[in-house]
Design goal:
The protein has about 475 residues and is α/β, with parallel strands linked by helices. It has helices at about 15-25, 70-80, 100-110, 145-150, 155-160, 200-210, 230-245, 245-250, 270-280, 355-370, 370-380, 385, 400-410, 425-445, 450-460, 470, 480-485, and strands spanning about 10, 55-60, 85-90, 95-100, 115, 120, 125-130, 165-170, 185, 215-220, 230, 250-255, 285-290, 310-315, 320, 340, 345-350, 420-425. It folds into 2 domains: about 55-115, Alpha-Beta Plaits, CATH 3.30.70; about 125-350 and about 420-485, Rossmann fold, CATH 3.40.50. The chain is built from 17 helices and 18 strands. The strands form 5 sheets. Strands 8, 9, 10, 12, 13, 14, 15 and 16 form an 8-stranded mixed β-sheet that branches. Strands 3-4-2-5 form a 4-stranded antiparallel β-sheet, with helices on both faces. It has a two-stranded antiparallel ribbon with strand order 1-7. Helix 6 runs parallel beside helix 14 (about 425-445), helix 7 packs parallel to helix 9 (about 270-280) and helix 14 (about 425-445) packs parallel to helix 17. The longest helix has 18 residues, at about 425-445.
Length: about 475
């Protein structure tokens, strides 16, 4: 399997992918709502006039002496006494959410409160456009991925380490798969009692974890809507729920295949990171996707930029780091990611008619078309050329080049079977490591989250001198070696 020809990846946002589906089906795609750019949180809220802003409010260190007892109730009562209309309490942070105008925000900051932007934004990373991959055969073919064997996880399975007795909480877009019932479900977004996943991302992520830990149990925690958007406070509430229910459901691992780009906020001030640290302190391993914004440095944001989070980059195979995998250092000049794992052409569960499945089905249909069929399609639906980001003069090429240009620029998403889909991203590398962590925690129940993380980092395979620590972390994950190290 060949590597990449030197280039910077291009990306499809989730809204762009949906426009491909709409153009293919002949629908008029609505304009996506404006979402505050990639920063997951910020303590700089810039609004004019009396416009209200969704915010999280936390007491600063200087305020601690103002309270007899610091908890979300006392903070909420104190703020309500100052005329703040509190929406929700965030127990894990001793804070609250609210809607405030700019003047109120500034007043609270002057009093020593930390105020964070809590407006909705996309929580899913963009999908890279992998140009010039050549796995042998046609350059747009899907290569063979042997992730269970490459990572040494098959050796753990032979020894009976399959995640039995461990519970992995998937904090994501939801869950919907009949073959694997959940042991618990929490919908932070809409409060649904029944598991569902209109986006499809969370179900794919869960299936990736199950590949590595087939006998582990799952908890589904939904924190984003069908379009993959949500509020930072919803993520905090998802982590909070996992901590509060840790003993009840025996939750030992959290996977977070979501997040944002670097935003200039120190990691220790980020509300999501604060919740992650509380989870690790409670004994839960938190595994987080590094992001898909590489190969440039300084592209890892929250929650993967927190030292306590186990931050996972992506690789095509044991010798090739994915160009799209986000690189360190973090805004705080820390080395991340921690390790890398398989993160391209990863096959897992699909939710029929979910947003992700519609996208994969459309892209796979295009890939299977003959050159003549593609020409006829683009002639009838010229908006599809624009939606795919193809050259405006595409149809001036002969049929052979129309096919080559189109199929080498498609999002690398496939439908191996009607029930599955394959795609790229650290979103899918992260849960593979989460599953491995569950296997290791089964075999070494006394090991702490940090000890498991250190064992995996200390035994990862270096991927070659062409990659530095900021590209590959400690290297490519090796579950079998980590098991021996923990013994």
């Amino acid at each position: 399997m060949g590597g990449t020809i030197g280039r910077t990846p291009e990306y499809f946002s989730f809204s762009q992918l949906n426009k491909i589906v709409d153009a293919f089906e002949g629908n008029k795609a609505p304009e996506a709502p404006s979402i505050r750019a990639n920063a997951l949180v910020s303590d700089q809220v810039n609004l004019g006039g009396a416009e209200s802003q969704d915010v999280m409010i936390l007491p600063g260190n200087g305020l601690m002496k103002s309270f007899k007892e610091i908890d979300s109730d006392s903070v909420a009562n104190f703020l309500q006494g100052k005329g703040v209309e509190v929406e929700e309490k965030l127990d894990v942070l001793n804070g609250v959410t609210a809607k405030l105008d700019q003047k109120s925000i500034e007043n609270l900051k002057e009093q020593g409160y930390q105020v964070y932007d809590n407006s909705p934004r996309s929580l899913l990373p963009s999908v890279p456009r992998l140009v010039n991959r050549d796995p042998g055969g046609k350059p747009w073919d899907m290569p063979k991925i042997d992730d269970v064997n490459w990572t040494g996880t098959s050796e753990l399975h032979k020894q009976g380490l399959t995640g039995k007795g461990q519970v992995i909480a998937i904090i994501d877009s939801g869950y919907e798969h009949p073959a694997k019932p959940l042991v618990a479900w929490k919908d932070v977004v809409e409060g649904s009692d029944k598991p569902f996943d209109p986006n499809g991302h969370g179900t794919h992520v869960a299936g990736d974890a199950m590949k590595m830990a087939p006998d582990a149990d799952l908890v589904g925690i939904r924190v984003m809507n069908a379009q993959g958007s949500g509020r930072p406070s919803d993520i905090v509430k998802g982590v909070q729920w996992a901590i509060q229910n840790k003993e009840k459901y025996n939750i030992s691992v959290i996977n977070m295949s979501l997040g944002g780009a670097p935003d200039g906020v120190p990691y220790y001030m980020d509300p999501i990171n604060k919740a992650v640290e509380k989870a690790v302190e409670s004994g839960i391993s938190v595994v987080a996707a590094a992001g898909n914004s590489g190969p440039e440095q300084h592209t890892i944001g929250s929650p993967a930029d927190d030292p306590k989070a186990f931050s996972i980059g992506a690789a095509l195979n044991p010798t090739t780091v994915s160009d799209f995998s986000s690189r360190g250092p973090t805004d705080d000049n820390m080395s991340k990611p921690d390790i890398v794992a398989p993160g391209e052409f990863i096959t897992s569960w699909a939710v029929p008619n979910s947003q992700l499945d519609k996208i994969a089905t459309t892209v796979d249909t295009l890939r299977r078309m003959s050159p003549d069929q593609l020409r006829k399609l683009f002639t009838a639906k010229p908006d599809l050329i624009k939606a795919l980001g193809l050259p405006k003069d595409l149809l001036k090429n002969d049929d052979t080049n129309v096919e080559l240009i189109t199929k080498t620029h498609l999002p690398p998403m496939y439908k191996p079977t009607p029930e599955t889909l394959a795609g790229p991203g650290t979103s899918f590398a992260s849960p593979e490591v989460a599953g491995i962590v569950a296997d290791l925690r089964q075999g070494h129940p006394a090991a702490s989250p940090d000890q498991v993380k250190d064992a995996l980092m200390g035994t990862a395979d270096n991927m070659g001198s062409q990659y530095g620590k900021l590209d590959q972390g400690s290297g490519f994950v090796r579950a079998d070696k980590a098991h021996k190290k923990l013994a």
